[in-house]
Each structure stands twice: as C-alpha cells, then as structure tokens.
Specification:
The structure is a homodimer of 446-residue chains. The first copy, chain A, is of the alpha+beta class. Chain A is built from 14 helices and 19 strands. Helices cover 35% and strands 22% of the residues of chain A. In chain A, the strands form 4 sheets. Chain A has a 9-stranded mixed β-sheet. A 5-stranded mixed β-sheet of chain A has the order 15-14-16-17-18, sandwiched between helices. A two-stranded antiparallel ribbon of chain A has the order 2-4. In chain A, strand 14, helix 12 and strand 15 form a beta-alpha-beta unit. In chain A, helix 5 packs antiparallel against helix 10, helix 6 runs antiparallel to helix 7 and helix 7 packs antiparallel against helix 8. At the A-B interface, helix 1, strand 1, strand 3, strand 4 and helix 3 of A face helix 1, strand 1, strand 3, strand 4 and helix 3 of B. Strand 3 of chain A pairs antiparallel with strand 3 of chain B.
C-alpha cells in the first residue's frame, strides 16, 4: 500500500486512547444490561432488501451489496446492510421462536449503516446498543417501566452529562387528537413533530390547513405539546384541557404508570413530555427519547418505544418494547469535544526494560509472571539506554518500568523505585488497567 | 414483518446460549491480548475498492456497496466491505502514523466479509481476532517469536482441542528453491502448496514441467517439504539436503530462533513445518498456520506472518508481523459439533419471584439490591403460581429463585431453600455469571 490515504466522511474511527473510552463505554453498558438479565445477541449484518424496505421512509439510505464479479447465480443479490438493530431482531425472533424462551430479554451492541449526510452525531456507519423485551401474544406493561430504567442505569454509569428520558404515549396522543375532532391523527402528529423546527405559529397553520382542525382545536393540540413534568402532575394538565376519548384515557393511565414507577425507582430520570411525537407513528404505546443535559442540541441519544407487533408470523404476534443507545452519537460528542479521556493509550501497566538483547528472555519471564497474576505488561522493544526505555513508557502513559538487572520497579510519575518480586508485586488497583475520567467532572455524574 | 423467514447460508447466527460461548471466547482472547499489552482497535467496515483489490487473487469475493437510490453525487461509490483486518489496519497505520507510537501493538476483533461458497468453517460474514506489531522502518525479529506465543496463550485459554502452530520462513523456502536452480521460486511454491491436494507424484511432475526443475531438484524440494520438528533438529535435516544459498541460511537462522525461543516459553506449541507454503508468496519472513489437534481437516484456524512492508507511504515503510484467529471458523466447529456448552442461556443468576402484582415493587427492590452487589438477576414476568415461576427459571438455567414474601432463596437444582437478605447473600462464585465448559473434557485443555 503506497500513498497517504484520506479518511472517509461519516465512517468514524478512533485513535487507541479514544478506543479505550469507547471500549469502556461498551463494557459498562454491557455489564448493566447483563446485571439486569438481558442476554447478548448478535445478528448478521445483512438482511433481504424486502425486509429492510418495509419502513418506506428510509429506503434511500440503505446500502445494497453485490459481489464484485457476481454471475447470474448470485445468491447474495437483494441483500442490504441493516440500518438499525430492530429489523434484524424481529426477523431473528421469528426465525428462532421455537428455540427462544419468552418473554425474551436481549441486548445487542453492533454496527449499523445508513447512507445519510454525515454531521455531528450522524454517521454512515455507527454502533448502537439496543435492549428489548419481546413476548408472545401479550407483553406486560411493567416492561415499559423497566426498559427506560435499565437504559438510565447504563447511561448514569457512564461519565457523561446527566441523561433525561422523555416519555410520551401513542394512545394518549392519538386519542387526544381524535377527541378534538381530527379526522387523521397521523397528520396532526406530523405537524406537531415540526414544533421545534418551525415554531408554534407555523404548526398551528399546518394543523388548520393540512390536518383540517378548527383554530380552537389546533390551539388545544399545541397546549398538549406544552405539557411536561417529572411527576404525575402532567395528567392534571391534560385533563384540564377538557378533551375526552377512551383511547386518551387508556394512554394517560399507561403514561402515569410509567412516570410514577420510574420516578420512585430513579428520581429525575424519566419525564413525561407530551411534545415527543417522533416515533409515535410506528410505536403503539410508550415512546422514549433521551437528551444529555447541556447537550440538548445534539438531539436524542437514545430512543425507542413499544410495538404491539414487533414481529408476526401470521398466526402469532410478538409485542416488544425497547430502546437503542446511540453509542457512536454519544462518543462523537464525548470524544469530539474532549469530555472524557483515558488514563493511557495502551493496556500495559508495566514496561519490562531490557538490559541487553541476550537478557531479553529474563525480561520475558518477568512479564509472564506479572501476566499470570493479571497485570498487563509488555517488554521493551530494544535494549536501548534506560532513559529511552522510560520515554517509551512515558509516551504511552505506562506508569511502571521494571528493571530485571536489580529487580526493581519504578513509578515513572513519582520517580519512586522499589525492590520487587514479580511473583508478589502489585500495582495500585487504579493503575492496573486503563481508566477513563471526565475532563469537566462538574458536568457529569459518577 | 409477516411470514417465517429462512436463514441465509454463510451468514451464521447463534442462539443465546451459543452466543454466551462466543462472548466468552472473545473475552478470553481480548484479555490475553490486553495482558500482553496490545491495544484494542476497530476500523470502519468499508474501504475504497482500489485498496481492497491490491491482492488480485480474491477480487471476486469482495462485496461492493451502493446506496439504493444513489444519484450522480454518490460519495460512497467505489466502497467495498473489508475481507480481512490487515488491509484496513495497514491503511489505518498510514492515515494515523503521526498519532501512533511505534512499535505499535494492536489487536482487532471484528467482522469481515467474503463472497465465498459457504462450507464448514467458511462463511460469507465472519469474526476474526487479529494481533499485530508494526514498526517504522525496521521491525525487531523477536516479535516473530512473540506473536505466536500470544496467540498460543489465547488459544490455550479456550476450552478447545490443543492448538499446534506450524511455522515456516519465506527466505528459507525461496533461498532453498533458488539453491536447487529454480528460475522462479514462486512457481515452485505454488506447486508445493498443492501437496496435500494432489500428492507427491503430481507435485513432482508440476515441478519438472511447470517450474522447470530437474528430477533431482524436484525430489529435493519434496524432501524439504517433508521436514518438521518441535525442536531445532529440523535445521540439521535441511542442511543434510546439501542445498546452499545465502537467503536459505538467513531464513534458516530466523526459523531456528523462532522455534527455539517459542519452545522454551511454551513447549509443544510451535512446530517448524517446511511444508507450509500458503502465504509465503505475500509474507516476507516467518509464516504461521494453526491446526487444532484432532481437527486437522478443518484447515488452519489461525494464520499470519511477517510483512516487510505492511504499509508504505512512499518514503517510510512499516514492517509488521501478525496473526489472525478465525473466531467464527473455530466456533463453527465448537458449536456445530457441540464441543462446548454454556451453563445457562441468560446472564441472570437469580429470578426474583413476584407474589402478586401489587408487590412487584418489593421484588424490584430485592433485584436492585442484588445488582448493586454485582449479582445478575431479573424479576418474574407475572405473579403466576410459584411452580410456574420456578419453571421459568429452570427453562433458562437460572439457578436461584428469590421469594420476597418470606425472604428466602431457593437453589432450584438441589431444592435447598434458605433465609437470605439481599444486602448480604452471595451465590457460589461459579454460579454468579454463566460459564462455559467442554462436553468432551479429554479432548481439550484448561
């Protein structure tokens, strides 16, 4: 390979120290999901195009595959890369239903691809961490409480700004819009969804001209979109608007349940926010969006909701509820704005120096003894002057250098050098593996 | 999504209990690499086609991407999915050379794609675990010893049949072939590479007719291919063949060094095997192949070698040495033949039962207390009869059921039920997380 290649816009890659931050994020999310009893799953990266194109709105973003020299027998014709982890998960559930135990709790951390115009937080290749519960025929409502709590626990375990999960309910919104006399609630949803972009006056105009609402009804819908609370007081505000519909009542009761129980378990995490419209057209119950406090402009870093038919084989339907953490979107901000850093760029806690090349085997024996005790280390590349070997460690952030000649280990930060036996010496626990920390601790939790 | 979809040949997916085995394998490999001071890296999944097609031999296996509704401005035209992790790594090194510390030790566990005809151990989408050291200008020879030792340590930490890493050396083979008078050593290599497939007589014929060797020289080359040993005695066998060439001497010295040092550090792992020809045409020094004892028919599960120019920007070249563990190939055998099983299909160690739906919050508090102490658990989906809740746990292999009503926890395997406080109770350590174990322990190591 010759010549200096350029990076590809929308296909992010990290440097080694940044990758340590990403890996730590993924490890933390995984641990939280597993502590909550969600099983890991990965699906293949490709799906048949007809599966991928069911959600018509994004068909122009799908990457289609072909083999470079495909013949007429091309078995891979009609395959595309998945653009999320929900479509493959639904397909996996149908394909393996006979081998799965329901309710099925799974998490999935994988890459997905969309041919979108790249910008901060939007990539063509990105990593998502999805967590879902899917059941056969019926899905209990308490999972609509559990999912945002699990995701909130994972987010709060990361050194990032405080997450706020906004929830709304499809039935509440649709019932409300029917209650004010809308003929097509989906049109009202689409208009209200533009609130942040075009403002209340333009939305009111749309509600009248396109959704056919009266001026009063339009005003009432806008008033609904202004209701939000961390406690269940939002329900009184909704009732005060004087709209009545059985579907509204059902949705309101569900949303009260979610906000009440989540508020008990994790105060300050989950907020009812009746402005949330995105996703209401394909979810059937609770919907979720998440912003990071102080970084609201980034948009939702974690979204999801309840599907009454996540999958169906024609006779049995599989309702599900889940959320998807936009790992790449969060990392794009966290690393792009230097909010979190790793303590070093390599796993090694110790560099074992080499006095002369004939003694390399001695250094390797020390390294093997340290590794056997769970201490990551590497042996110096060459028997250079010690000063140069120490610089080798320093440039990578390796805190300790081991000298076999006199059996000493030096903390190169403090300069302290002590006699040590590789069968017994331990580094301070925070030094054993690389750690990550926020650069602006006042903005972030743990 | 409706209708029962079929799985795609060559795109493997695992069931939850199988995924636990895969995850455990990946965790073990990662830990070994990190204990040895290799930094994690991931690269994007796509590369420009001109980068991917430099190794002409496999161009028909590349998957090319296009956006479904791409216009004339398609910025993604000319991108393909990587077919290995070496091409992207070489590109990454060039692109980021100014930000990396050399020698650069990295591992990379990712998916790759090839449009190959699927068969056991050969997939169209697969996971590889690569480990490489790359340096600027010069790369020390001791890394040719270290790489197979690190890979061997990772493989030996897995519950799989004993690995044997066969090594050969490009200079040894090329020098030897030049020494017997071959005009084009690459032609000799290609003929010898067919030994296993077409047998010695046919190879001899090829060496005479296509590589232009004398009958005596052809016989000598076949004799070389018959030499193998776990110690350095292979060198005497080579010398006894009476062939002389400076490049042969250099390669022989390098191979002796690798076999000698590896034999001291990890007896029985690394074998000189002068039959190994695959890869000799693009590697420049040591080459590696690995078989699992008793599963030799599967072919190499782990290959690699030394490149004197892994990458080059025209002025600086970056020599490297590395190996790639075929994780999917190994798992295909291990799971396909049921050689390893997980202790359960979910992370949960405890199912917290629910006495009645009004008491669900009590069960959730117990679960939260257990999780805070690192015990994975889930709460029962419904306040069904206890027998049914116990069956829920049993079907997933969850060993313990917790009853909040009388504060007891039951080991559903033994039936033993004891009073317990979620702030103090601990499961036996082997039960805390799922574990994996070989089904035929006599065949495997640890």
């Amino acid at each position: 390979m010759a010549g200096r290649p350029a990076s590809l816009s929308g296909f992010p890659e990290w440097l080694p120290a940044e990758r340590i931050v990403e890996l730590s994020f993924l490890d933390t999310i995984r641990r939280t999901f597993e502590l909550n009893g969600f099983a890991s799953l990965e699906t293949r990266s490709v799906e048949p195009l007809d599966q991928l194109l069911r959600k018509g709105e994004i068909d122009n973003e799908v990457y289609v595959l072909r083999r470079l020299h495909a013949g007429a027998d091309d078995a891979d014709a009609g395959l595309g890369l998945h653009f999320d982890l929900t479509v493959p998960f639904a397909r996996y559930v149908l394909e393996n239903a006979g081998h799965l135990q329901f309710p099925f709790r799974r998490y999935q951390m994988q890459r997905a691809w969309r041919g979108e115009r790249p910008q901060e937080g939007r990539y063509r290749e990105f990593v998502q961490a999805d967590v879902d519960v899917v059941d056969r025929a019926e899905l209990a409502g308490h999972y609509e409480v559990e999912i945002p709590l699990v995701v909130g626990a994972a987010m709060r375990a990361l050194p990032i700004p405080e997450p706020v999960i906004s929830v709304n309910n499809r039935k509440l919104a649709e019932g409300f819009f029917l209650g004010v006399g809308a003929a097509d609630p989906a049109q009202v949803l689409r208009a209200v969804d533009k609130l942040a972009k075009i403002g209340p006056d333009a939305v009111t105009a749309l509600l009248v001209t396109e959704a056919g609402l009266s001026a009063v009804a339009a005003k009432t819908c806008l008033a609904l979109a202004g209701i939000a609370s961390f406690d269940t007081s939002f329900a009184d505000d909704v009732v005060a608007l004087g709209v009545s519909h059985p579907m509204l009542d059902e949705g309101l009761a569900e949303l009260v349940h979610v906000v009440e129980r989540a508020g008990e378990a994790a105060p300050g995490l989950v907020m009812a926010d009746l402005r949330i419209a995105r996703g209401l057209d394909y979810y059937t119950g609770t919907v979720y969006e998440t912003v990071l406090t102080g970084y609201e402009g980034l948009g939702s870093v974690c979204s999801g909701g309840r599907y009454d038919s996540l999958a169906s084989d024609g006779t049995v339907r599989y309702p599900g509820v889940g959320m998807s953490i936009g790992v790449s979107r969060i990392l794009g901000v966290v690393l792009g704005r230097d909010l979190v850093r790793a303590s070093r760029s390599v796993p090694s806690c110790v560099l074992v120096a080499v006095a002369d090349e004939d003694g390399r085997a001695d250094s390797e024996r020390v390294a093997a003894a340290l590794r056997a005790r769970g201490i990551p280390c590497e042996v110096a590349p060459a028997a250079a002057k010690y000063g140069r070997q120490i610089r080798h460690a320093d440039r990578r952030g390796i805190p300790f250098v081991w000298f076999t000649a006199d059996s000493t280990v030096k903390d190169i930060r403090s300069g302290e050098q002590v006699h040590a036996d590789p069968a017994h010496w331990d580094p301070p626990e925070p030094d054993r593996w690389p750690t990550i920390a926020p650069t602006r601790p006042e903005e972030s939790r743990p």
